[in-house]
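dude i think i finally got it to work??
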Amino acid sequence: MYARSLTRILRRNARSVLVLGPRQVGKSTLLASLQPDLTLNLASPRVFREYVGHPERLERDLETAPETTRTILLDEVHRNPALLDAVQVAVDGRPGRFRFLISGASARQLRRGQANLLPGRVQIHRLHPLTAGELGADFNLDRVLAHGTLPGIYREPDPDTRATDLRSYTDSYLREEVQAEALVRNVGGFARLLDLVAAASGRILNVHNLSQDAGLGYETARRYLEVLEDTLIAFRVPAWSGSDRANLIRHGKLFLFDIGVRNALLRRPLDRPLEDERGLLLEHLVALELHQRLQSFLPDATLHHYRTRHGVEVDFVLSLGRETWGIEVKSSRRVHTSMLRGLKGLAYRNPQVTRKILVFLGPRPQVVDGVEVLPLQNFLGLLPG
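look at this
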């Protein structure tokens, strides 16, 4: 089992927590590692039957629980959201008596079940696929760029089995469960949209063009994209709005939550990354690392991309308090001065940029014309988590 960075956060704080995330990112495993005194797994048919028609039973069980029962895991609570009302009664009526560890697929799914999200009573965290830091010595770039980092799939030793599991995941979960979550009437349109989102992952998103290509109305396409974001299947990196905003492209970039899922949706060969996509996939990997780590460890930081109407582009602009980093990602092992154009243009037009960083696949860090050129692992080492 891989040690998750979020575990450290949860161990330092005794507050009750709600951990959200797509299927198979490791929510149950993470919360179980905190050694709860009582576990109610609502994926179990027996447990589900016991509580589905009688959520008040949990309230009675908590009232009569022995003093040694302090930490309670409610796993897959989206299957019976009414149990969260009993949690509120316990938290409000007996402060400090219990600590609840709750997992769910998405806040959207809970809200659709009219769930009480316990505002002010629980801390909400989001769990993603594995980061390079969590993989540690098991990190293999080609494997990550082909199969992604869903824990159960990544740790499977046989590549063919990994590929089969990944395709099964995309077909059974994304194409069916997320489709059901979107309350889809146009099944064909949603399927086309999902494939187009996979193809557009890492690129600037134009919802109008996407809706036309999928054969959907603009509002329908916008709602489906909102579902993908709410279920944590996709996230946006908005456009930077710095001092030269009149010259900037305003559309954001959309990224799927896992590179392997993207590849499986597009029916790419899963034995290794395609060479002509390596640059795009490497940028995707850096986007995932930034998004996941900042969300957990630096929630006040912001992440954008930068592109002017004249084609000057920087992959990411990271704002950290008084610091602003321009980050460009290249799959090359050598640095060419042409690679620095975007970073220099960004810094020239936006004096608040404090660091210019080029991430590449070369072996050694260096400085070229005032730009920090960092190997991938050196750059990832700068990030928290």
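The chain has a mean pLDDT of 89.
im so relieved honestly
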